[in-house]
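Final report, results section. Input specification for complex C-07:
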Amino acid sequence: MAINKKLLPLVNPLSKDNPVIVQVLGICSALAVTAKLEPALVMTISVTAVLALSNVLISLLRKTIPTSIRIIVQLVVVAALVVIVDQVLKAWNYEVSKALSVFIGLIITNCIIMGRLEAFSMSNRPWPSFLDGIGNGLGYGIILVIVAFFRELLGSGTLMGYQVIPESWYAAGYSNNGMMILPPMALITVACIIWVHRSRNKDLQE
Amino acid sequence: MKRLKKQLDKIKPQFEKGGRFQKLHSVFDGFYTFLYTPNETSASGVHIHDANDSKRTMITVIMALLPCCLFGMWNIGYQHSLAVGIPEGIFQNFIYGLWAALPNILVAYIVGLGIEFIFAQLRGHEIQEGFLVSGLLIPMICPVETPAWMLAVATAFAVIFAKEVFGGTGYNFLNVALVTRAFLFFAYPTKMSGDAVFVSLGGDKAIDAFSGATPLGQLASAASDSAPQLTDVAGLPLTLSDMFWGFMPGSWGETSTFCILIGAVILLATGMASWRIMLSALIGGVAMSALVHNFATPLYPATMLGIPEQLCLGGFMFAIVFMATDPVTACRTNVGKWIYGFLIGTMAIIIRCFNTGFPEGAMLSVLLMNCFAPLIDYCVVNSNIKRRLSRAGIKS
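Structure output:
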């Protein structure tokens, strides 16, 4: 299946060039917000929005930004967008905003964002930059959602807050795995995804 | 026996290259060498051979574990008879304990060996014997009432993530049996502590005075304003001799200090375990116990214990004899072994006394020092290199 070359920035980060499991960026938030599925989804949308918009903005500004202060300019743009996302969340979904607490603010320090700004949008036109932002945001999000799915299912027996594991299982002696709620299991789940991914993509193996 | 050997030799070609079951050749090999000594010799180069291969090492450790194992089974039955108030004979007690413990032993072996076999097939390796000991250790260091499925999940987790991902037997940096227990402890805390899991009631009704908490469990939940009185399952005071011989509830393999000492003698006499680690861990434990006893406060009830009680209670002795001395995860250098053992001993007592979340610290202290063992070795080796360089007058 040949993919349109123009769509490569969108498609590549989903698997072959995934920011989390191939470049191993953004791990910190992948550990912090994946105990439940809902915060993971919100985090995915927030990061994708910030990433796409900041990519476009920086791409538009790329010829006017002096190289010596480019990091500061990038930070200002990202910080402004993150504050907007934070306020929107507080206005429309206060519960999740509380659950995510500082992690929305910490999107500023997410290495994926700074990485894409430096590596892609500083040297590309706005449209490919936008696609790159969406692609990387979704690539990050896929992993978050997979990890959160397993952690919530095994750790709390719920999905999106709804009870999935039937009561009869608990009566029969099943109990939730408390370790899945703790951050170490997020790391191990990410490791499992990397394991599966590498064994399917031999060219990525070191 | 001869007929079996003939049969095996007959089907052997099918498992060799080009045969029908070529993929299963390491399974066949594993069973074949388990039954008969392999007669292959090295074809080239100079090799030093020792009769003491890893199979024999494992069997020796199993033999050292047997006193604890048999006593533990009897103790399960004994605690049960105390709890229901009906005295039983030694033999009945043992049979009861055997039936209570056997399912968990089988589950640990089947799950662990199953995973080892699968990984050996996938990688085309030979099957290693490493799990023979772990499979017996795992049920022995868990409460007798641990549900079998939890044990299966935890064993699978430990074998895959503590051992196979690092390359299998001999490459794990954490003790597999302890990882299993730690996983159970953190994943299912309610099933791994409290007073309902350490004594098997088997559906019988307990007497009124029954309390199933282990001595350290009693200390951890004791009111912090008075010196607690440790009791056995029937509510009678627990004496030091009970603690030494092991007539108390606990993870069933580790209650008897006496049987652990027999195991220690076997391990030391055959040279399987390092006496440096055992001795230094003992020194560390005694020193730390003396220190905390000196500053004993009812705020932390475990500090009120005397030195002999500290050593006899909980998994301390079991951990320093069977866990800390695991040659794969311990330090390799002799100086390193002293440091490693000493820190395990002190850390176990510190966690036990001052971390109220964990009634026993032996598991965590061994796992922690497992992580630091390579670093200790690195420092010891480098300081030795530096010393020798300066002795030779070379500035590095």
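DSSP finds ten helices and two strands in chain A. The longest helix of chain A spans residues 126-156. This concludes the modelling results for the funded period.
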